């Protein structure tokens, strides 16, 4: 066998093993749990608004509406807080590393009634620091903040599937056409 054929067989074997274990690339794997609603209106401002809107639009079987009246649910970002703290200091008393923390809290209401508790997501990143590379560190910090906003948005969207619908509210999405009082055949 030639080396190209061996490489192809190895690549096929690797892809078979990875697909068999459920591996998928980040952002491409769909959530297996159904959401408790079929359409949502996003009420968010600030840095999380864009990433959260994109994450909701990527969710299968979910429609993001332009107004709250046409949506089944409303997702409101209640609070968001970004902070940068000193994590380590070197022996000379200079900053060696920062800890960046982003916290966002969201609330989901369905027909005016809140479902589940407020969802709070905290994302942390460490960033090394040096006075010699200030311009590069500013760009790195901006990239880290954007990555943190995206991660927080993805975490919030994943949590939506675990919200419990109130028993007095009708189920979301398409329903069975069988009447509730129908008798089933054994």
Radius of gyration: 23 Å
**What gross morphology would you assign?**
flat
Largest sheet descriptor: 6 strands, mixed
The counted number of beta strands is 6
List the helices and strands in order.
Answer: HEHEEEEEH
Strand content: 25-35%
Q: First CA to last CA: what distance?
A: 59 Å
Give the helix level as a range of percent.
25-40%
Count helical runs.
3
Low-confidence stretches: none
Report the average pLDDT across residues.
85
Class by alpha and beta content: alpha/beta
Provide structural commentary:
The chain is α/β, with parallel strands linked by helices. The model has no long low-confidence stretch (mean pLDDT 85). Helix 2 (49-57) packs across helix 3. The longest helix is centred in the C-terminal third of the chain and has 27 residues, at 134-160. Strands 1, 2, 3, 4, 5 and 6 form a 6-stranded mixed beta sheet that branches. The chain contains 3 helices and 6 strands, in the order H-E-H-E-E-E-E-E-H. The radius of gyration is 23 Å and the shape is flat. The protein is 29% helix and 28% strand. It has helices at 3-20, 49-57, 134-160, and strands at 39-43, 63-64, 73-89, 95-110, 113-114, 119-128.
List the main descriptive attributes of the protein structure presented here.
single chain; 186 residues; alpha/beta; six-stranded mixed β-sheet; 3 helices; 6 strands; 29% helix
């Amino acid at each position: 066998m030639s080396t190209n054929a061996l490489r192809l067989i190895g690549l096929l074997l690797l892809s078979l093993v990875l697909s068999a274990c459920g591996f998928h690339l980040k952002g491409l794997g769909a959530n297996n749990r159904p959401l408790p609603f079929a359409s949502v209106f996003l009420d968010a401002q600030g840095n999380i608004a864009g990433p959260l809107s994109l994450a909701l639009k990527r969710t299968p079987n979910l429609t993001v509406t332009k107004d709250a009246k046409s949506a089944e649910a409303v997702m409101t970002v209640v609070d968001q807080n970004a902070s940068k703290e000193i994590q380590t200091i070197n022996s000379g008393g200079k900053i060696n590393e920062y800890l960046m923390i982003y916290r966002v809290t969201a609330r989901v209401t369905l027909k005016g009634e809140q479902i589940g508790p407020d969802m709070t997501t905290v994302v942390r990143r460490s960033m090394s620091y040096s006075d010699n590379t200030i311009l590069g560190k500013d760009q790195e910090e901006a990239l880290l903040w954007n990555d943190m906003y995206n991660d927080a948005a993805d975490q919030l969207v994943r949590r939506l599937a675990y919200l419990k619908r109130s028993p007095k509210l009708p189920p979301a999405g398409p329903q069975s056409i069988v009447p509730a009082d129908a008798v089933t055949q054994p």
